[in-house]
């Protein structure tokens, strides 16, 4: 009896001493992650310098070398790292020319279509590796037509021209970058009857406003010869494999089928420089454009045409099935290895890519190296962390989309969240976009990290500015690799960066020198974005209860629904089903928060005697899976790849972040047609959204009806 009692007492006593020898709490490692002792701006600078030594577009040898570098860094961080390859359709320029014919006796002008190398450019020896300026997936062809100036090429700009009596049919439009996605500029031109499109980088928006403004390398602005290249593809992923992965030997659509899909333009287009755009503008007559259509203060007067200037636009592209390479690194979770927290950034660039995207790649490698330092100090993640470096994003989010399509079932059943960083740094000022249940987590992380531009405050302090709360954008646009995760399979996601738009975007001047002089001279903004990115990932990977709050979702849905109701209050559309579903979601969000609180309180000091991990796991699964419920298997009307009914791109602006995209598309169509049938479709879309919101509340409740 004595022995049994003694042994029992010793076991109990020992159990109480176990915490004295337990590893530090996860919060200790999280604080260590963002400390100065682990961060390294010199290492980030080195990564960026290495990645941007050569232009490295998708499918190039230089981009394969960059992939090998990323793989080597991830492997050196004790990760299980590997490359996943896909065979995808890419396009490259074979030949292009542009000639302007003006009123006699002025002779025609044939444009050189070259970006000029500046004096003492350290990258002069590799400048010939930059692709000739072009639009990826542009239609090959030769067209001749009078020029019509269409401002930013938006739907409303064509309405203005129609009101002015300007006919675009048979013309080559001249549009300027700055408001909508370039692919939609070309699509809108075709819809208006144009036969070709030229898109220029206006000094007013990218050149410092003209006048005495200097440009790179003396200032941050785009040089007169600078050209913004990019894709004009309106889909996501390989155009020949919509909805399935582009693996070797897979089924593919024909070129004719791709053109018939409506996702690639059917008229030729070219991007041109600000200088060339102004030259063409001088040849355009007709009515003077409105004040807000005009250029910089010393630009020619912008008129709308048509003509008398006539352009001859020739473009011939070559289509190639090329190999692209995603680099994947994995840190396996110690307790829940089948739950994934995924961080992603793309690697391919149109030119050198110092901002877009390799500021993000350098930050990703910084996160990887800090996580390795934590591992050496004894940290192990509760859940699996996956670091992804995508390829061919610039062509249309190709690498990430193919990976998501190939791994759809595993990702939908196991992924907690996806955290994206594309252009990590282009200047001062922190910005974030997210699905709303991550709002509070982002705010909390920003409160922990010092502002790189003001050591007396946190990033959160800078973020909120003079307001009481930071502005968090939403992920409805298709501007980066979060699209497949959110809009196709319904995974909670966030995207973050320092700075806004930057003038040398997608030009050959987006190089290491620009970053070192204007974007982030001390690379402290890179350090800061890596800290926020990694801290959000650590909390998602380590916390016992997922730090999701669906009350933020409720508030966002209520606000958006009220705005829509006010917009079409005279059309007889009933929004009560949607408001009712949102109220159900609100109750479900409160219920699951209360359940979480009850489990925590029940555990208390007796947690060593209780086994609540099944309850915790089940509750976390509901938090994780609720976002999936916002998707619909049929997708958006005529855009079926987009399954998310809350967030997806606008039909006329792929970059535009739209809430309730199906409702908005139906409203736009109904306003144009104004028929009973078109407004009935709006009501149908309201019902569709109300159903998915109710499904999300059912998931959060965790009970069958």
List keywords for this structure.
two-stranded parallel sheet; globular; Aminopeptidase; 13-stranded mixed beta sheet; 705 residues; Transcription Elongation Factor S-II, Chain A; Glucose Oxidase, domain 1; alpha/beta; 23 helices; 17 strands; disordered N terminus
Main structural class: alpha/beta
* CATH topology (fold) name of the largest domain: Aminopeptidase
Number of domains: 3
Question: Can you tell me the residue ranges where pLDDT is under 50 for at least 5 consecutive residues?
Answer: 1-19
Tally of individual helices: 23
Helicity, in percent? 25-40%
Largest sheet: 13 strands, mixed
How would you describe the oligomerization state of the chains in this entry?
A: single chain
Distance between the termini: 55 Å
Task: Please tell me how large the radius of gyration is.
Answer: 27 Å
Specify the overall morphology: globular
Task: State the total count of DSSP E strands.
Answer: 17
């Amino acid at each position: 009896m004595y022995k049994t009692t003694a042994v029992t007492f010793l076991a109990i006593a020992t159990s109480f001493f176990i915490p004295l020898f337990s590893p530090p709490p996860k919060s200790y490692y999280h604080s260590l992650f963002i400390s100065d002792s682990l961060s390294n701006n010199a290492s980030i600078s080195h990564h960026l310098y290495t990645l941007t030594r050569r232009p490295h577009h998708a499918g190039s040898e230089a981009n394969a070398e960059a992939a090998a570098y990323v793989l080597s860094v991830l492997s050196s961080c004790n990760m299980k790292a590997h490359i996943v390859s896909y065979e995808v359709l890419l396009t490259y320029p074979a030949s292009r020319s542009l000639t302007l014919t003006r009123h006699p006796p002025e002779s025609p002008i044939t444009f050189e279509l070259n970006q000029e190398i500046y004096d003492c450019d350290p990258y002069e020896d590799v400048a010939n590796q930059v692709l000739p300026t072009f639009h990826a997936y542009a239609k090959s062809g030769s067209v001749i037509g009078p020029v019509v100036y269409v401002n930013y090429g938006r739907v409303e700009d064509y309405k203005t021209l129609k009101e002015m009596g300007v006919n675009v049919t048979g013309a080559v439009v001249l549009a300027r970058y700055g408001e909508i996605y370039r692919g939609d500029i070309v699509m809108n031109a075709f819809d208006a009857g144009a036969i070709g499109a030229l898109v220029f980088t206006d000094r007013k928006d990218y050149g410092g406003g003209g006048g005495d403004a200097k440009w790179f390398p003396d200032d941050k602005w785009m040089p007169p010869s600078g050209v913004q290249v990019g894709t004009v593809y309106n889909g996501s992923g390989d155009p020949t494999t919509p909805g399935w992965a582009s693996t070797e030997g897979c089924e593919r659509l024909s070129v004719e089928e791709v053109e018939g899909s409506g996702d690639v333009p059917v008229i030729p287009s070219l991007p041109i420089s600000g200088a060339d755009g102004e030259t063409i503008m001088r040849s355009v007559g007709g009515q003077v454009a409105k004040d807000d259509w005009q250029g910089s203060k010393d630009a020619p007067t912008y008129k709308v045409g048509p003509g008398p200037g006539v352009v001859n636009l020739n473009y011939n592209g070559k289509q190639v099935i090329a190999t692209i390479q995603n680099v994947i690194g994995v840190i396996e979770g110690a307790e829940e290895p089948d739950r994934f927290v995924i961080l992603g950034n793309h690697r391919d660039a149109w030119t050198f890519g110092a901002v877009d995207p390799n500021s993000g790649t350098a930050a990703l490698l910084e996160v990887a190296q800090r996580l390795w330092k934590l591992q050496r100090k004894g940290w192990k993640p509760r859940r699996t962390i996956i670091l992804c470096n995508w390829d061919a994003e610039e062509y249309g989010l190709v690498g990430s989309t193919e990976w998501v399509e190939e791994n759809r079932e595993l990702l939908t059943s196991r992924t907690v969240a996806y955290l994206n960083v594309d252009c990590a740094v282009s200047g001062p000022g922190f910005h974030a976009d997210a699905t709303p249940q991550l709002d509070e987590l982002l705010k909390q992380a920003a409160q922990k990290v010092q502002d790189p531009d003001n050591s007396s405050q946190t990033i959160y302090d800078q973020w909120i500015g003079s307001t009481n709360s930071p502005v968090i954008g939403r992920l409805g646009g298709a501007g980066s690799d979060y699209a497949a995760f959110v809009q196709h399979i319904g995974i909670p996601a966030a995207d973050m960066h320092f700075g806004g738009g930057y003038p040398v975007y997608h030009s050959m001047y987006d190089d290491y020198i620009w970053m070192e002089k204007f974007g982030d001279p001390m690379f402290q903004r890179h350090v800061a974005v890596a800290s926020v990115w990694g801290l959000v990932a650590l909390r998602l990977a380590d916390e016992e209860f997922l730090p999701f709050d669906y009350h933020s979702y409720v508030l966002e849905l209520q606000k958006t629904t009220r705005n829509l109701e006010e917009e079409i209050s005279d059309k007889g559309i009933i929004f009560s089903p949607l408001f009712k579903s949102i109220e159900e979601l609100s109750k479900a969000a409160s219920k699951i928060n209360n359940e979480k609180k009850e489990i925590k309180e029940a555990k208390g000091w007796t947690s060593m005697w209780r086994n609540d991990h099944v309850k915790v796991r089940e509750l976390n699964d509901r938090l994780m899976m609720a976002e999936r419920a916002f998707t619909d298997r049929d997708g958006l009307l005529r855009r079926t790849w987009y399954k998310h009914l809350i967030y997806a791109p606008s039909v006329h602006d792929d970059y535009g972040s739209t809430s309730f995209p199906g409702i908005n598309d139906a409203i736009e169509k109904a306003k144009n047609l104004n028929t009973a049938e078109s407004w009935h479709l709006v009501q149908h879309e309201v019902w569709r959204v109300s159903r998915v919101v109710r499904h999300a509340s059912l998931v959060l409740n965790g009970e069958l009806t």
